[in-house]
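User: Please predict the structure of the protein below. I'd like the answer in structure-token form so I can feed it into my own downstream comparison script.

Assistant: Understood. Taking the following sequence of 372 residues as input:
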Amino acid sequence: MDQISPSRTKAEDARPKTLPKADPVPEAAAPPATEAETEEKASWRTRALMFGVPLLLAVAGGAWWLTSGGSVSTDNAYVQMDKVSVAAEVGGLITEVAVREGQEVEKGQLLFRIDGHPYALTVAQASAAIDAAKVDVGNLSASLASTSVDIKAAQEAVGFAESNFARQAALMEKGFTTKAAYDASKHAVEQARASLGQARADAAEARAKLATGAGGVNPQVEAAKVQRAQAEVNLGRTEVRAPSAGRVAESDRLQLGQMMVAGLPAVTLVDTAHPWVDANFKETDLAHMCAGQRAEMRFDAYPGLVVRGHVQTIGAGTGSEFSVLPAQNATGNWVKVTQRVPVRIAFDEVARRPMIAGLSTEVKVITSDGCK
């Protein structure tokens, strides 16, 4: 056996001895929840549901009242504009079209022109009728002058015949003339008086034809002037101009060479500068609505666009009252239907986007303002 030296033994004894690691002591497990604690948690959840849900509903109802409870709204609303159907007042061929679809026009701007040659000829014919009437007046004046001469000659003839008859009558009393000469002189007096009466009648007729109206103009001349004025008006109507400013619509009927019939609508002008909205509210929404209340308008075509306005008028009747076939509710199977009343909403500001007639609109009227 090997011998251990005493020095080695002392060195080993001087080194620190490493103790073996002890196994970790497991922590004590949490004690299981008691039945009382479980019931307490369930009770708290029940209380939260019982009181929290009604409180949440109350808050939501208050928010609804503050935000929308003081207003009424409808999506049965549409943008409206004044539309003027322009028709020609005279007929004829279209020789010029000066506008196109969608063009903005000003009042008095030329829309289209009709062939004016036939109407120019009518003006010339009316002018000739005026000249003819003036010639007739001149002839009547000359005739009146000649009748005055005839009257004077007839008066002299009557005087001569009466003096001759007086001589024949004196001779007849003395027996120095014949019965035939006496009768001839008497007949001459009657003829002279008849001629005088005819001359006076002709003069009266000539004066009547030369009589003037209230304006001091002969009626024949005045009638001819009226005819010429009418012909000039018709000639001017061959140029059809815009009665108001607006946008051109339905101009497809304006074609060069097309025969235009008087009174037939040829083009439509839409007044885009003054739009409004016709909103059809339920009759149950009118309790607190009146003219002047603020309104907000939103448009399906322009999401996010809000335009301010106000209630201008409330319709005098429901929509069914003005329908072609109004509803008859006198039958026994009557069912009550909520009626719609048209309400006109006026714009208080110019919209940032162009308005188009017929756009679908959502209107909200602020009824909390009250009625003035």
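That's the full token string. The longest strand covers residues 302-314.
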